[in-house]
Amino acid sequence: MSAAAFLLPVFRIVDLAINLYWWVIIVMAVMSWLLAFDVINMRNDFVRSVWNGVNALTEPALRPIRRFLPPIGGMDISPIVLLLLLSFIQMELDQLARTLIMSSM
After folding, report:
1. Which contiguous run of DSSP H or E holds residue 42?
2. What is the mean pLDDT of residues 15-20?
3. What is residue 75's DSSP assignment?
4. Coil, strand or helix at 72
5. Phi and psi of 75, rounded to 5°?
6. Residue 74: what are its φ and ψ, rounded to 5°?
7. How many distinct helices (H) and strands (E) make up the chain?
8. pLDDT tens, 59-96?
9. CA nearest neighbour of 79 among 16, 22, 14, 17
10. Higher-scoring residue by pLDDT: 4, 48
11. C-alpha to C-alpha distance for 90 and 16, rounded to whole angstroms
């Protein structure tokens, strides 16, 4: 079994996981805006459980970014930085997959 035959499905799974994590980050960002403008509130059990879930998933990745990048103008841009970082990882994995495919031919 060649390395490409093994690694390409792994790259696809990692890409899918990154895409799903993108949506979790977007949900967290939108919820934080809705909470800040009091459109939704934490008194609702469903809102609180969704918030706790997305916060538990995103906070470990956002915390190191927030340590180096404080809020700019009162806005937390760490989700944007994380999304850019995830995009970079996806592009690099895609390029690596293309290289593996070409080398196995």
Report:
1. none
2. 97
3. B
4. strand
5. -105, 135
6. 80, 0
7. 3, 0
8. 999 999 999 998 888 889 999 999 999 999 999 999 99
9. 22
10. 48
11. 10
